[in-house]
Amino acid sequence: MDYLNYEDQFKTILNQEEINRIQSPQLREIRMKYWRLRHEAFINERNISDRDLEKLCDDLMRQEQEELQLFKENNSNI
């Protein structure tokens, strides 16, 4: 398998195919968790206002970036 390079693993947005190309299982799990949460929010868009959906997605992006930063700090040897 052709893994993503280090910088690409931390792009703001990744699709499922790119997430599957992350070598670290822990990092892949973090990225997939937030991908799923955003996906579920969009599927549920009929039950949520556009403004609330935007706020939810922004919050999820912020949480993901915080978790990615912690991952980087704790795995600086990767």
Unreliably modeled segments: none
Number of DSSP E strands: 0
Q: Helix segment count?
A: 3
Q: What's the order of the H and E elements? A: HHH
The mean pLDDT is 93
Gyration radius from CA atoms, angstroms: 14 Å
- The amount of beta strand, in percent, is under 5%
- Shape descriptor reads elongated
- Major sheet summary line: none
Secondary-structure content class: mainly alpha
The percent range for helix content is 55-70%
What oligomeric state do the depicted chains represent? single chain
First CA to last CA: what distance?
A: 18 Å
Describe the 3D structure:
- With 78 residues, this protein is mainly alpha-helical.
- The protein is 63% helix and 0% strand.
- The protein contains three helices and no strands.
- The protein has helices spanning 16-20, 25-43, 50-74.
- The radius of gyration is 14 Å and the shape is elongated.
What topology does this entry show?
Blueprint: H1 16-20, H2 25-43, H3 50-74
Helix pairs in contact: 2-3
Brief account:
This protein has 78 residues and is mostly helical. It has helices at residues 16-20, 25-43, 50-74.
Task: Please describe the structure with a list of short key phrases separated by commas or semicolons.
78 residues, 63% helix, elongated
